[in-house]
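MFS transporter: structure tokens wanted.
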Amino acid sequence: MAEAAGASRRLASPAEVVAGLAGVYMAQSVVGGVTFQGLPAVLRQDGASLSEIGMLLVTVAPWSFKFLWSPWVERYRLPPGRPHRSRRVVAAGGVVVMAMMVGAGLAGPGALGLLMTLLTLAAFATATVDIACDGYAVETLSERHRGWGNAAQVAGAYAGTAIGGGLFLVLVDHLGWAFACFAMAATLAALCALFVLGRDGPRPTRAPDAERPNLGAALRRREVRYGLLLVTIYVVGQKWAMVLIGPYLVDAGLGLSWIGVVNGLGGMSAGVVGAVLGGGLVRRFGGGAVAISSMGLQAAVTLGFAASAAYGLHAPWIVTGLALLNAVVMAVGFVALYARLMGYASLDQAGVDFTLFQCADAIASVVGWLGASAFGDALGYAWCFGLTGAVAVAATCALAPAFRRADAAA
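Answer:
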């Protein structure tokens, strides 16, 4: 009994588990922030067109298709009857990502082809880490702590994006591209250390005779299939306008340092506030109601960008306010959505199931981002924001029946 009690004391508390997970999610989003907010602003200032900037979307491909190798990651991470290897996966992936960021610093923003290759490899590594990290989160956090875990995931994502899309731009503007990339690599090391060197939390041991993780087992479950439909509808309404915001801030007359502050301190604060607010609202009103309300607000914000572009409302307080409000609304919505999705994932292969949801998210996002980038130069911001706002209105109407079907299947 004393030995068992001592072992229990050596386990991490839920707060420690959440902190370690938040560090990994922040690290992943640092790379995403550099790729989709920092670099587009740098390229736009150097005269790149929206079509050229849109080529960066190729680097998101690993996030769209990581479900293809998720069963192999889960089989390595969860050896039957033996301790899990989540920390090994995170440590190995972190080393690869840091190396790619150092390489990006040496290559420079002018070598777009090489830069895209390095960022794609970094995305492959972070996507693999995410499979292991998500599976660990679902297994380790009890149902009553998953809300906090998901809030940490969303808040960590916003904080990481603030570092990659905000602090990164400030460093580029004042200290140069290479220094900024090296600083991001050092930041990644510090953030991943929270998880890799931390204590393990209480989690179930995989039975020796458990079925090997596979995609077929996930797709045979109705709650997974309806969850995929729910994710697609939600992302179509919420994220299609996101790729336009960074270039729009540049064309509206904001400087890189100001955009860096908006994406950095402002975006991080708005995202954290939205994540905490989302957790409280979900606890009070339920995830479905919060997600639907958030989508309606998202439509309003996107149409606000359309009005700003159409009527030349480029005052810094207007475009900055819209960008920050967008961050709050997105954070609230994704806390509500992904708290639900964690409940749809099987404990026998949580990394596979949750990865399928995220890949549906990424694929739906890329489809919209490619369309917005391709037609951005021809149609202009007003039409692009207007069309994506209309899509968000349609998604708001479709969410209620989608939630009902997913809940009935669970």
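The chain has a mean pLDDT of 82. The longest helix spans residues 143-175.

Cheers.
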